[in-house]
């Protein structure tokens, strides 16, 4: 439940609004919502406000009303309010939506946007003649704050609105925004912040983003109607494994036919491609069904968005690219294909349907395998109970700090003491040790290496007063070219023969392909011919069976809250009644053949199969944590002479196979694996190199690759892998190594969660030795074959293996 | 490996050992590449590439006790590299060059290698059916050993792609991998390699301890 921190929502205690606003409401027969009045009241008292309200509650207008009121009462010269949005499309859309009331109220207030797409001429004009309200993104704010005249630019600033504030914490983009907000508050100590957020589990975690907490008010809007969530109960057989839900597509298609416009969410781009293609195979009515994901050509995406705006589409198959953003007219159904992964994410997606507060949104959850059926049910119950996933705030990233410090020095000479105090006001950096700050500053100055080789080439120089300032105008130029925290995975163009470009795919996916492999892209099947000149060369392969990439499950692990519900559901057979018969039968067979663990237990099954000894554990902690656990367990088994041969990590379970059985499970899972074993493994793995690449770009160690500047011919670009190897060998304690480690621990290895798991299961391991595979183990064992085997038809092999396993697990004698 | 009838031994470090003359051959050390970026654009790459490369040269020196070293050009990343060398690194280099007949060949990055670090400087060297130069010359060049291209190659093993630096040879000429810590690579299937080798060439991929010869048609694009 949400508890207001400072004040309860007052019903009608607000002081009168300027007559232009009151009469605008009156002309339309509207009255401001209570939460809108509460925001106006608090902001009128000079306070910052955090407004938490569901979609459809007039949240954005609530944020702007106090600003319009202020501008009416006291017109000014400079920019009075900044609006910061995580999406540039959203900034543009809000500008359009704001123009209407401003015009209708006949206000002389200018509203402009500034995003990465804004022309240099317009930006220049905005600096000379600033608009009253400027709508922009965190990157543009950082850029503006790096100008020498930043203080003048924000001279008249009274408000900053943070839209979709809930997406910023625990991200590098949020870290950068938090630092820049503190700089704004240094420039304008009376700055009022208006934060707008969807419903979150812990509103108190967002309050520090508004500045001093004794000057902030929390306003919680009335909850909207509860969404109606249905789980697809297919007559078809729910698959044991896989992530495609192809079995259910006829029923999904039927649901699309019965709705005006449906958004069909999936978890990965490749899934989107496959589902889109399969839906069109069923599309006998030629319904306008479109595809939208991040690697499609921008023009193609804009076309789909425009068609959505005209209500010309019946369905869009999409990925997280449509999680946030513009409100589109007539969406009346949201379909989630595959695991929901998180409660908040699912609620957000469901909220994309029907933007009216008092009408329930309709959602259809489509599990793609048997475990996901449990997950969908868990998600539905959590939504009904109003539970949301919580995430504990992570410390701010050190590479982002490096970038920010350079930006500040480009604006004006900085005084280390003062800027350290400013940085420590930003919520993610409240606990930043002075030593880390000094190292970040030293990195910006001259690389900060123990070997002081670059004294002659400093980026910052000291003024006679002891301040630090950019040593050369080129430093500022370089900083502005490299600003931002989003480092795109390297992408390769997909080209048809020597002809047209179809879009882009991740280098990592392209590298898995061998010539002759087929895959789906932009709604068609292609055969991979090779990589030439940074392009993936393909030929048409209509009708071929496309290969499914091994990361088909998506990159977000299922959340702790959802995982816990799934464990409880598995343990309590009264809850099984809510499951479809075929799932109940699967669980009954499991109880008969093996056992279902209690919610606080970790079930570990061991059984021989062929010449191998299998160990299957069911922690339900997500693929990342399981992968790390698998790496650590196999190392330990190797040392004990158990000859591990391989492992596979899924969202729910982990399977390891070895030549010898494990004699001591408690010892195997002992917590101390997170010490030396982890260090030793990381030293050999490529994971840290991947993290280092992003850190190197964000911190400003290497320049971003700009479009058109890719390596050509024999000119060789810098490999961050080589830099990493040298740095690890010669200065493993360098601040960038620490930043890399911090990134990897949280996002690639999921160490906090693995640590929690190991503590949770101490003394609660339920070992169940079996003579053969159990029904619960089948899904994870089916994943073993999913890694590609070149030159062989993967699908045939999988089908064969699948039949065997299921027969073996369900055999009655 | 036989090149123009001469027996040569590729080493997993990227060096080439010529047993008959007890010669160690390395290419493209690119010493002080890191500091070149600091000097040019204030990019502060870890300043340890030179000592990492020297450390590997010293290890080879201890293992083989060669009578002669050949560095096939681009030993220094630019003409000012020697001035940026840390004193300690310069001393270690001098100790190395003083222990055998040390030959710097000229490269395009270092058309005039520094004379202050010991060793002698030559443009090219021809001996016993082999000819050593920085960059492969045009046309058929039997016995040519060169560097410059920084070759690397990929193979797919059990669905996983592995990319490593490599030697490339068709038995007629040989291109060495780059030895320097910060030297990047160019895939041997790139069009720049096409005029140098016949279709039957092998790539000798550098493993952690051994070198593996892979025929061209087994390489991953």
Written overview of the protein:
The complex is a heterodimer of chains A (813) and B (221). Chain A has 29 helices and 25 strands. In chain A, α2 packs parallel to α3 (59-73) and α24 packs across α26 (735-748). In chain A, a hairpin with a 2-residue loop joins β21 and β22 (612-617). Chain A has four domains: 19-220, P-loop containing nucleotide triphosphate hydrolases (Rossmann fold, 3-Layer(aba) Sandwich), CATH 3.40.50; 225-397 and 491-574, P-loop containing nucleotide triphosphate hydrolases (Rossmann fold, 3-Layer(aba) Sandwich); 398-481; 594-813, no CATH class. In chain A, strands 3-4-2-5-6-1-7 form a seven-stranded parallel beta sheet. A six-stranded parallel beta sheet of chain A has the order 8-13-12-9-11-10, sandwiched between helices. Chain B has helices at residues 33-41, 49-64, 81-84, 87-97; strands spanning 2-3, 6-7, 9-10, 16-18, 23-26, 68-71, 101-105, 120-122, 125-127, 130-132, 144-146, 151-157, 160-169, 173-175, 186-187, 202-206, 211-215. The mean pLDDT of chain B is 92. Chain B has 221 residues and is of the alpha/beta class. Chain B is 18% helix and 30% strand. Classes of the chains: A alpha/beta (813), B alpha/beta (221). At the A-B interface, α17, β19 and α25 of A face α1 and α2 of B.
List keywords for this structure.
heterodimer; A: 813 residues; alpha/beta; Rossmann fold; 4 domains; seven-stranded parallel β-sheet; six-stranded parallel β-sheet; disordered N terminus; B: 221 residues; Purple Acid Phosphatase, chain A, domain 2; nine-stranded mixed β-sheet; six-stranded mixed β-sheet; 4 helices
């Amino acid at each position: 439940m949400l508890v207001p921190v400072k004040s309860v929502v007052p019903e009608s205690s607000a002081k009168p609004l300027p007559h232009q606003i009151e009469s605008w409401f009156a002309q339309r027969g509207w009255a401001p919502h209570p939460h809108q009045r509460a925001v106006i009241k608090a902001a009128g008292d000079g306070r910052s406000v955090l407004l938490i309200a569901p979609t459809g509650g007039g949240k954005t207008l609530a944020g702007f009303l106090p600003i319009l009121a202020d501008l009416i009462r006291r017109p000014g010269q400079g920019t009075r309010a900044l609006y910061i949005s995580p999406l540039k499309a959203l900034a543009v859309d809000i500008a359009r939506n704001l123009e209407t009331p401003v015009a209708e109220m006949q206000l002389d207030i200018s509203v402009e946007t500034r995003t990465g797409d804004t022309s240099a001429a317009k930006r220049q004009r905005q600096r000379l003649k600033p608009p009253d309200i400027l709508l922009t993104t965190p990157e543009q704010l950082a850029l503006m704050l790096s100008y020498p005249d930043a203080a003048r630019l924000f001279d008249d600033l009274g408000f900053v609105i943070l839209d979709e504030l809930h997406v910023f914490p625990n991200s590098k983009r949020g870290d950068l925004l938090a630092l820049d907000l503190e700089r704004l508050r240094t420039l304008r100590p009376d700055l009022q912040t208006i934060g707008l957020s969807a419903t979150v589990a812990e509103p108190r975690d967002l309050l520090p983003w508004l500045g001093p907490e004794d000057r902030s008010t929390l306003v919680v809007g009335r909850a909207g109607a509860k969404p109606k969530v249905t789980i697809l109960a297919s007559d078809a057989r729910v698959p044991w494994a896989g992530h495609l839900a192809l079995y259910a597509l006829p029923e999904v298609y039927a649901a699309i036919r019965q709705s005006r416009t449906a958004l069909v969410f999936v978890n990965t781009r490749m899934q989107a491609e496959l589902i889109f293609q399969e839906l069109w195979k069923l599309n006998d009515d030629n319904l306008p069904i479109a595809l939208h994901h991040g690697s499609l050509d921008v023009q193609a995406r804009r076309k789909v968005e425009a068609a959505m705006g005209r209500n010309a589409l019946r369905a869009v198959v999409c990925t997280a690219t449509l999680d946030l953003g513009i409100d589109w007219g007539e969406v009346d159904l949201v379909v989630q294909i595959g695991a929901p992964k998180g409660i908040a994410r699912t609620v957000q997606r469901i909220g994309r349907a029907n933007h009216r507060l008092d009408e329930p949104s309709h959602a259809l959850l489509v599990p793609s395998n048997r475990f996901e059926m449990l997950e969908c049910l868990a998600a539905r119950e959590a939504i009904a109970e109003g539970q949301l996933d919580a995430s504990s705030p992570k410390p701010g990233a050190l590479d982002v700090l490096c970038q920010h410090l350079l930006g500040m020095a480009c604006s004006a000479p900085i005084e280390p003491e003062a800027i350290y105090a400013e940085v420590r006001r930003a919520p993610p950096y409240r606990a930043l040790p002075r030593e880390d700050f000094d190292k970040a500053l030293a990195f910006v100055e001259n690389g900060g290496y123990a070997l002081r080789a670059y004294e002659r080439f400093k980026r910052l120089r000291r003024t006679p007063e002891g301040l630090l300032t950019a040593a050369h105008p080129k430093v500022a130029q370089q900083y502005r070219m490299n600003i931002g925290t989003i480092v795109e995975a390297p992408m390769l163009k997909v080209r048809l023969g020597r002809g047209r470009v179809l879009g882009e795919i991740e280098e990592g996916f392209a590298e898995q392909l061998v010539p002759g492999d087929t895959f789906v892209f932009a709604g068609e099947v292609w055969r991979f011919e090779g990589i030439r000149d940074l392009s993936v060369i393909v030929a048409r392969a209509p009708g071929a069976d496309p290969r499914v990439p091994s990361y088909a499950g998506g990159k977000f692990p299922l959340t702790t809250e959802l995982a816990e519900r799934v464990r409880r559901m598995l343990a309590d057979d009264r809850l099984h009644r809510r499951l479809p018969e075929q799932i109940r039968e699967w669980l009954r067979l499991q109880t008969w053949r093996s056992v279902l663990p209690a919610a606080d237990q970790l079930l570990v099954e061991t059984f021989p199969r062929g010449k191998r000894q299998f160990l299957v554990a069911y922690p339900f902690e997500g693929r990342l944590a399981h992968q790390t656990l698998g790496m650590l367990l196999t190392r330990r088994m190797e040392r004990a002479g158990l000859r591990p041969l391989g492992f596979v990590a899924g969202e729910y379970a982990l399977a390891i196979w070895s030549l010898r059985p494990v004699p001591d499970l408690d010892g195997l899972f002992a917590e101390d694996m997170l010490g030396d074993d982890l260090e030793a493994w990381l030293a050999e793995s490529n994971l840290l190199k991947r993290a280092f690449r992003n850190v190197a770009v964000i911190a400003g160690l290497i320049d971003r690759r700009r479009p058109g500047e890719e390596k050509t011919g024999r000119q060789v670009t810098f490999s961050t892998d080589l830099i990493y190897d040298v740095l690890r060998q010669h200065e493993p304690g360098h601040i960038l190594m620490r930043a890399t480690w911090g990134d990897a621990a949280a996002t690639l290895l999921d160490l906090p969660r693995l640590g929690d798991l190991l503590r949770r299961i101490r003394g609660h391991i339920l070992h169940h030795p079996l003579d053969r595979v159990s029904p619960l183990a089948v899904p994870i064992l089916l994943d073993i074959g999913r890694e590609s085997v070149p030159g062989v038809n993967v699908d045939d092999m999988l089908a064969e293996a699948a039949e065997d396993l299921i027969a073996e697990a369900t055999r009655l004698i | 490996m036989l090149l123009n009838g001469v027996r040569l031994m590729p080493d997993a470090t990227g060096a080439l050992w010529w047993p008959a003359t007890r010669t160690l051959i390395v290419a493209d050390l690119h010493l002080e590449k890191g500091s070149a970026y600091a000097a040019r654009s204030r990019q502060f790459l870890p300043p340890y590439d030179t000592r990492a490369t020297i450390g590997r040269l010293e290890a080879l020196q201890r293992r083989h006790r060669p009578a002669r070293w050949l560095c096939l050009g681009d030993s220094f990343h630019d003409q000012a590299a020697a001035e940026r060398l840390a004193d300690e690194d310069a001393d270690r280099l001098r100790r190395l060059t003083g222990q055998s007949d040390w030959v710097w060949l000229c490269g395009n990055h270092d058309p005039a290698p520094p004379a202050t670090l010991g060793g002698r400087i030559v443009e090219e060297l021809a001996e016993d059916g082999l000819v050593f130069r920085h960059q492969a010359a045009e046309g058929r060049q039997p016995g040519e050993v060169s560097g410059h291209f920084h070759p690397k190659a990929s193979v797919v093993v059990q669905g996983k792609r592995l990319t490593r630096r490599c030697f490339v040879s068709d038995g007629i000429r040989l291109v060495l991998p780059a030895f320097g810590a910060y030297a990047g690579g160019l895939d041997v299937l790139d069009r720049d390699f096409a005029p140098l080798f016949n279709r039957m060439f092998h790539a000798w991929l550098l493993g952690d301890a051994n070198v593996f010869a892979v025929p061209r048609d087994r390489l991953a694009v």
